[in-house]
Each structure stands twice: as structure tokens, then as C-alpha cells.
Amino acid sequence: MQSDIEELENKGKAVKAASRKLAHLPTEVKNKALLKIAESLISREQEILDANRLDYDEAKAAGMDEAMLDRLMLDSSRLQGIAQDVRTVASLPDPIGEAFDARTLPNRMRIERRRVPMGVIGVIYESRPNVTVDISSLCLKSGNAVILRGGKESIHSNSALARVIKDAIHEAGVPQDAVQFIESTERELVSHMLRMKDSIDVIIPRGGEGLVGFVTENAVMPVLASGVGICHTYVDSAADLDEAVAIAYNAKVQRPTVCNALDCLLVHNVVAERYLPMIAKEWAKAGVEMHCDERALRILSSFNPAPASDSDWGKEFLALIAAVKVVDSLDEALEHIERYSSKHSEAIITEDYTAAMRFLEEVDSSCVYVNASTRFTDGGQFGLGAEVGISTNKFHARGPMGLKELTTYKWVIMGSGQVRP
Amino acid sequence: MQSDIEELENKGKAVKAASRKLAHLPTEVKNKALLKIAESLISREQEILDANRLDYDEAKAAGMDEAMLDRLMLDSSRLQGIAQDVRTVASLPDPIGEAFDARTLPNRMRIERRRVPMGVIGVIYESRPNVTVDISSLCLKSGNAVILRGGKESIHSNSALARVIKDAIHEAGVPQDAVQFIESTERELVSHMLRMKDSIDVIIPRGGEGLVGFVTENAVMPVLASGVGICHTYVDSAADLDEAVAIAYNAKVQRPTVCNALDCLLVHNVVAERYLPMIAKEWAKAGVEMHCDERALRILSSFNPAPASDSDWGKEFLALIAAVKVVDSLDEALEHIERYSSKHSEAIITEDYTAAMRFLEEVDSSCVYVNASTRFTDGGQFGLGAEVGISTNKFHARGPMGLKELTTYKWVIMGSGQVRP
């Protein structure tokens, strides 16, 4: 354990030193390194898949469930996909060096904010080995060095991937120390890592609620965390009901296991009698289970819905389940959302201009929609090109986070002898 | 104590509820409230100065030193100044509602980031009562509600100022609960406040290093903190030496007690023999004490300088003292800065283009200067109109923080029936 901490401390020092070089690399060198990573993922496929097989077999023997095993598993086609994602990152514009708020002050000093990397990003993640490549490539592109701590279940896969990455960036002229992988899976190392503020500038936790919560509570450095999505769609009295069916169907069914899927459907009472059977019929075909409040229960009695319990409000289902509630007004919908949403994504379906504007103004969530599916909350869909995660915090970044959200800025002032009067 | 915590919790709930209304107030209502505060500070001068007199007398009797007493003291002219600052905040553009990155996505959804308030700002501060007004007005203008916890020494002054503010905003039609002042000065309340993440979105500590450190370590919500300034000025081999004298003189002498004043002067060896006596002569007139490394000590022997001890490097003097060191190269200067600076403000004095560009690129500080005094690091000087503080962190905001840094954004998406394919 003592030697593990020493190794961690040494890697921290090395990655910090490398970050100073990485921050000033030309875009073409960073892109060359990224393309080299993509190439090596293909050319060293066997080495990676062999390592992944070890993890897979151990996890299976230890009784890991099918869904988790599937997340852990790599094959040739998944590696191709991962490599393609790295090529996409290479093709994105480099955020570093962008100048903004640039101007000449009254005393003729030139001033600008210049976009620069954070420095060192620490990443703590669970079973999916693709995170190793995914986050490393986003950090590299944004000029950040990275220190990775993966889960025990994918240690062989992660270790192999980190080796491939380090070799590839070295060939491209990027310091190898810019990507550090922690080989030990001792649990205590995580707590130690969360206190290493001299070598880690920002921590990104990638995994379940437990991990994210632990990191957020214990890290002494800032945390860039993705939050839980408890997403509401409100069908207003003035909604186009066919559109409302298409949107609520898409929001719940298109990919129910993700954070931007619909969890709670709110329906205005003047359209509930007509609308609820319409959506219930479509949802029934897809196998969606409805947990209804009293009024919705009565309207939908022929569909045999379940009564909602208190815990159904404010619940992220991540499954083909939706809570359904009838409300008497836009105000009641807004209050329900204020109380139960996790401030991720909410939508109103309406043709009423004032209701739409009020919803956009008053709902305090990262992403607020009129007449569209909350499933669009995604870095790729929003045109960021890549996604580090979706923040439900208000500090630094909110909603989908791309490369820019891995950066900060410095003030650059070019004078000609100015002193303060 | 139990009742104090209950009061704090109740104020937390009230301020959170008020923040929802405050976020949507028109600019003209917010400005009206600000102008009303300025007016009341003048019209209720006697009430405020009487309360301040109580604090002052108690502090004096308790043996508070002159400098601290001076910070605590209010008089008619200081109140005029505080009122004028509030009028300045009223005259600034409202940051709320600004749209940025607005565009139409390929599927014809309209998307924008819209600037919105954080919600509730918690402020923990020490003796200066002007912070009560200063921060309240910045929060109000940026649509944030505020909960204030001032120091024990200025409790009567703060309480009177908070009363004046609450009455003034009420008259202007702003919910009184949007400004909450904690009357109890129990120390334990601070720790409790730092855990109230359901009602406080961001914490701002205003005071000495001890307070800022405690808040940063213990708050569970994000902290917007001003950092210590250990500021370097490097006189390059290609410096215009007269300019270098004017700038180093200004950076050290114009106001030595503030964070952006010069702490360490680095001088290239090829100009040290000529430059050091020039600056030493000027500094001597102002009473600046020099703590020199060996080479500077030898060059400046006729000025009787003190030898620098190890603790002089990386020290914020806040006084007419400067550490002085001769370096052999720009690289050595950069290394020294990397090691000892607090990442606040650093300057290079040079006529060499490449040296200037390298310094701007490689120094990882909030503000980097060529040929100008670090004393310019200030929200007002940078054109922000107002200043919340100067951040030496990299997250959310860096360097001088104005109204914009008290805000976040939400993504607003206006669709016409789009669903995710």
C-alpha cells in the first residue's frame, strides 16, 4: 500500500511536469498523436482483446451480471468504433489559444482572455474500458495531461489500452508522461488521489451515482461531474397532440436507459382525456409501464396502469417506465418540475407562445425545450463534436460538456510602459 | 445555538424561494432597487453611523489595532462612496438574458446558451461593513439572492446596513427575502452554512487567508474565492531599463498592501549591473526594503540591502518589501515563477518579441503582462465595471471577476416537433 501511494505520488509529479509541455503543443502534433492512437488501437487489436478476455473471464467467474459484462466486453468492431471516435476528436477544432473579449483599454493596453488548458485532469471511472481512450483523447486535444484510475474489473483492458496510448503519443512526439495510468486497484488510492491538489487540477468521475457522489463529497479540487437525469415532459392545454405523442414516445422509448430519457409525463387536465389514451396506446406497443396519479389512473383504466407511489416522482427510471400526472395549470407543472427535477432536461409541448416563453424562462434546468424531445441533450447533438459528460451543476459548465469545458482562460495584457495612476 | 441553526435554516429556505422570483425580474426593477439602496444609505446615515459607532467603541475597548479599526469605521464620506458604488452597479449592463452560441442545428432546432443567475450566493466575510452593501448590490444586479454572514466586530453596522437594504428593495418591488442577514455571530453557524447546499448555490468568502482557506476546505457547494497574490516582474536582457524602473516602481510602491503589488523582482544578469542600482535608488526614496539573492546583494552593496532568506521567495509581502533575484535566462525566470508564484499576476519587461510571446504563452497565471504594471489586475481597470474578487483558481472564473462571473447559463432549445432518430 505504501509503495502504491508512492507510485501514485510519482505519477502525479510526472503528469504535472508533462502538462506544462502539453499545454503549448501545436495542434498538428496533438492531432498526429490522436491519429496514431486510432491506428494503434487497430494494429494492436490482439494485445488489447487478449487483455480484455482476462477481465471478462474473471468477471464472469465472479458472477458479474450480463449487462455489466456487456459493458466490459471489447471486440474487433467495438475497437473500430473507439478508434473512429478518436479520429473524430482529431478532426475537431482545437479550443486552445482562442482569444475572446479582446479589446484595447482606454490607456491603450491590449487585453484579451486567452483559452488555455486546465493542466492535469484526474479521471476515476468504473468498468467501461472505452473511457480510457475516450477521455485520454479529449484531454490530449484540449492540451490537458491526464491521470487515469479505472475499475478493478477492467484493469487488464485499461492497462493494455493505456500502454497503446502512451506508445502512440510518444511516436508522435508528445511526452509519454502526459497520460498516466494507475496500475494498482487498491481502494484507498482513490481517497489519496482526491487530495492531490498540487498535481491534479480537476477531477472527472465517470460511473454510477455512488462513485460520482463519493468523488464530489471528498475531492479537494474542482469536480466536473455528470448528474442524474430526472426529465419531465409537460403536455400543455395548447399542445398539438399528435406532436406530443411523437415527442413523448421518442423521449421515453428511443433509448430508455440513458439520462436524457423521459421519466415523468405531466399533462394538462383539459387535454388529458384525449391525450393520455393516445400516448398510452403507443407506449403499450413498446412495453412502457405507466405509474399514474389518481386522475391519470381513472382516464387510463382500460390500459391497466399501476398507481404511482410517492417515490415515483423524482425518480430516474432508466427503463421503460414513466410516471404520469395530470395537472391543472402551467403553474402546477412548473412547481412539480421545480420540486422533483434534477435540473437536467425538461420540455413543454405547446402551441401557446406565452406558455412556451414562460417555460423557457422559469424552468431552472440545464436544458429547456419547446416542442422537441429531451433525448437531444447530448454533446454530439448540440454540435459540440464530443462529450465529456452532462453537468447538472451550475458552476463552470452546465449541460453537455465538450472540449471547451476542459479548458480555462488567462488574461493576456500587452502594454507599452503603462503604470497605474 | 439550536434556535440559531433553525433561524439559519429558515433564512436559507426563504432566500431560496425569493431567488426564484429574483431571477426573472426586469432590469429596470433591479436598477430601481439599487438606486433606492443608494438613496437610503444617505437618508438613513445617522442610523447606520450610530450602529457603526457601537461596533467601533466595542472593538477599540477590546484592543483592536489601528489598521483594523480603520477598516471597520464608517463616516459620512465613506457612506457617500459606498452609495456611489451602488449607483455604478445600477449603471452597468444587466448580464442576465444574454444569449450566446445561438444557432440553428441541421434539424432546424434553434439552440442558444442563455445567461441566468446562479440562484443563491452565500457570503462569509470579516470586519469591513462595506462588503454588506457591495456584495448585495452585485448579487441583486446579477439576479442572485444573497445570504450574508458578517464578522462579529461589525455586527451592528452590518445589521443596520442589511435593514436599510431590505427596506429599500422592498420599496422598489423586490422581495425582501432576497437579501438575508444572519444576526447570530455563533462560530458554529459558519460550518453549518457551508453544508446548506439545498439553499446556497455558491459561497463567496471575503477576508483573510484563514477564512478563505477554511471555507474552501469545508464548503460542499462551489466556492468563488479570491486568492493570494505572489506577483513577479521579470526585467529581461532586452528591457527598456527606464520603462522597467517606472513599472517596477509602480508595481511595488503605488499601493503596496494589495494582492497585485510586486513581491519579487527578477532581473537578467546582463542588465543587472546597470538596472538594479537604478530601481534601488527609486525604491529607496519610497522606503522599499530589498531582500536580495547573493548576486543582487553584491551589486547593490552600497544600498545596504538585506540578504534574502528561503522564505522570501513565494511570499506575499503586502508591504514596502521586495525580494530581488538575478537570473541567467528567460528560462530560469520562467522556472522561478512556475515554482513560487500563486498564479495571480506576472509581468515581463522586454523589447524582445520572442521573449514577450514566450512569457505570455508559458506563464500559467491568471494575468500575464508585457511592459505594464501588475497593479492593473482589477475588475475596474479591466473594464468589468465592478469586481467580486480576483480568482487564482482555474475553475469557472480566473482573474478579476465581475457580474458575469456571478452567473451561469442554460441551454434553450426551440423545436417544431423534432424527435431523435
Helix and strand topology:
2 copies of one chain form a homodimer.
Chain A: H1 2-22, H2 27-43, H3 45-61, H4 66-72, H5 76-91, E1 99-104, E2 110-117, E3 120-125, H6 130-141, E4 145-149, H7 155-171, E5 179-181, H8 188-193, E6 202-206, H9 209-218, E7 231-235, H10 241-253, E8 262-268, H11 269-286, E9 289-292, H12 294-299, E10 306-307, E11 321-327, H13 330-340, E12 345-349, H14 353-362, E13 367-372, E14 389-391, E15 399-401, E16 407-418
Parallel strand pairs in A: 3-4, 3-6, 4-5, 7-8, 7-12, 8-11, 9-10, 9-11, 12-13
Antiparallel strand pairs in A: 1-2, 2-16, 14-15
Give a summary of the structure in a few sentences.
Two copies of one chain form a homodimer. Chain A has 421 residues and is of the alpha/beta class.
Account of the 3D structure:
Two copies of one chain form a homodimer. With 421 residues, the first copy, chain A, is α/β, with parallel strands linked by helices. Chain A has two domains: 2-225 and 401-413, Aldehyde Dehydrogenase, Chain A, domain 1, CATH 3.40.605; 231-376, Aldehyde Dehydrogenase, Chain A, domain 2, CATH 3.40.309. Chain A is 43% helix and 21% strand. The first copy, chain A, has 14 helices and 16 strands. Chain A has helices spanning 2-22, 27-43, 45-61, 66-72, 76-91, 130-141, 155-171, 188-193, 209-218, 241-253, 269-286, 294-299, 330-340, 353-362; strands spanning 99-104, 110-117, 120-125, 145-149, 179-181, 202-206, 231-235, 262-268, 289-292, 306-307, 321-327, 345-349, 367-372, 389-391, 399-401, 407-418. A seven-stranded parallel β-sheet of chain A has the order 10-9-11-8-7-12-13, sandwiched between helices. In chain A, helix 12 (294-299) links the parallel strand 9 and strand 10. In chain A, helix 2 (27-43) crosses helix 7 (155-171). Chain A is globular and about 65 Å long. The N and C termini of chain A lie far apart (58 Å). The mean pLDDT of chain A is 95. The interface between A and B is large, with 65 and 65 residues. Strand 13 of chain A pairs parallel with strand 16 of chain B.
